[in-house]
Design goal:
This protein has 421 residues and is mainly α. It has helices at residues 6-12, 19-33, 35-41, 47-53, 58-86, 89-107, 112-140, 143-174, 178-198, 213-224, 227-257, 262-286, 292-316, 320-347, 354-378, 383-404; strands spanning 413-415, 418-420. Helix 6 runs antiparallel to helix 9, helix 7 (112-140) runs antiparallel to helix 15 and helix 12 (262-286) packs across helix 14. Residues 1-14 and 407-421 have low confidence and may be disordered.
Length: 421
């Protein structure tokens, strides 16, 4: 099957480019992609309570986070190609329905093992909103415009990490951790209404791909043969691994290690989210002068340096919680520059298979996150363990860029299953 190059395919989609229209699209897509971070973060203040209530261990409860990330990764690999074949709306609505059902099952989970399975199902459902939102961005925008829109999406979905732990803390003050999952079910219902009422189809029938397994596998193969795309996907995943290391270990480090209460933890966690969001918005200004590839490289260097400083402060215990948070904020701010640009660069190479490309991208990001979460626990679940995990991702990402040196600003197309640049 012959598909259209990205430049041709982009011209087949017409959309209103006026500022109000773009703002509405950003708000709708931001609400959708926020479901993933909300699902991940809202129960973080409850991790110690879940450990006690289910008579479990810290490491076992952290695996429920791993289950969520695995669900997000696997779900994107399946839902991405489906959205290329069926359009964006139907898989989105179906995935949101799965998330709602899984949230209700999490609410009544009798053990950590059951909670881990239902959290994986919950992540699978949330994957639909995240991968399809990215595919819609690629349907409508290219290059710097795509990076700019993604920066705005980071701003919108960044509200979730700020609000989520605070919401979780409020629910814990009024009830138990099970109420948190009831709230996630309600959020899923609201987002389904948003998708049904406000999101139009962005993938015309003539641009859809065959829904057979073999063409999907062929598309995945062609994407994986594009070395520059693979490196950029790896960079995007490793850049986010620092964020997942922080998400996985922060509740234990800040509450058990530094003695913060649930509400104090929510406040400090929110400050980290502000650093991430602020950097993502400065990225919009930086894109006016520098290429996305240049910004990613500089941000990874800054992330690595800040991570090394974090290892030093956590190992020596200098400065207490302040000495811990200052380099953490620098790492998260660096991630705010990596997160919008590396996906935009990767997706710009394969506009003809945006859903499948976004699926690989998301699977790499959350798959690496699923590995990072238990790694923090295995290393000791303390400040130095979290610091080493946060720093390792940046160092490996820099090594990948130095080894592969991909031509990141030149798009590639896939025609009949072969990548060209």
């Amino acid at each position: 099957m012959t598909t259209k190059p990205a430049s041709v395919a982009a011209r087949t989609t017409t959309h209103d480019e006026s500022p109000p229209s773009r703002l509405r699209m950003i708000l709708v897509l931001g609400a959708l992609v926020a479901l993933g971070p909300l699902t991940i973060d809202v129960y973080l203040p409850a991790l110690p309570a879940i450990t006690d209530d289910l008579n479990s261990t810290d490491a076992a409860v952290q695996f429920t986070l791993t289950g969520t990330l695995i669900g997000l990764a696997v779900g994107q690999l399946i839902i991405g190609p489906l959205s290329d074949a069926l359009g964006r709306r139907r898989p989105l609505i179906a995935g949101t329905a799965v998330h709602i059902l899984a949230s209700l099952l999490c609410m009544i989970a009798p053990s950590v093992a059951v909670l881990g399975v239902t959290r994986a199902l919950q992540g699978f459902g949330a994957a639909a909103t995240m991968v399809i939102a990215l595919a819609i961005v690629r349907d409508l925008y290219e290059g710097r415009a795509a990076a700019t829109v993604l920066s705005r999406l980071v701003l919108v979905m960044g509200v979730a990490p700020i609000v989520a732990p605070s919401l979780g803390g409020v629910i814990l003050l009024q009830g138990s951790w099970r109420g948190i999952f009831a709230g996630l079910a309600v959020a899923g219902v609201l987002l389904m209404l948003v998708a049904v009422c406000f999101l139009r189809e962005t993938l015309p029938a003539e641009r859809r791909r065959a829904p057979e397994v073999v063409p999907v596998l062929r598309t995945y193969g062609s994407l994986l043969r594009d070395r520059s795309f693979v490196v950029l996907v790896l960079v995007a995943g490793l850049g986010m691994s620092a964020l997942f290391a922080y998400i996985s270990g922060s509740s234990f480090v800040l509450q058990d290690g530094y003695g913060l209460g649930e509400q104090q933890f929510a406040l400090v966690f929110g400050i980290g989210a502000v650093a991430l969001i602020g950097a993502s918005q400065l990225n919009v200004l930086a894109l006016q002068r520098y290429s996305p590839a240049r910004i990613v490289t500089v941000a990874l260097v800054a992330m690595a340096i800040s991570g090394i400083a974090l290892i030093a402060t956590t190992t020596t215990e200098v400065g207490g919680v302040v000495g811990f948070m200052i380099p953490v904020l620098c790492v998260l701010a660096s991630a705010g520059f990596v997160m919008p640009n590396s996906p935009a660069l990767a997706l710009s190479r394969h506009g003809e298979a945006a859903g499948t490309a976004a699926a690989l991208l998301g699977a790499a990001q959350f798959g690496l996150g699923a590995l990072i979460a238990p790694l923090v626990g295995a290393l000791g679940n303390d400040g130095p363990a979290m610091a080493m995990a946060m720093t390792g991702g940046a160092l490996v990402a820099l090594a990948a860029l130095a080894y592969a040196r991909p031509d990141r600003d030149r798009p590639a197309t896939v025609v009949d299953g072969s990548a060209t640049a």
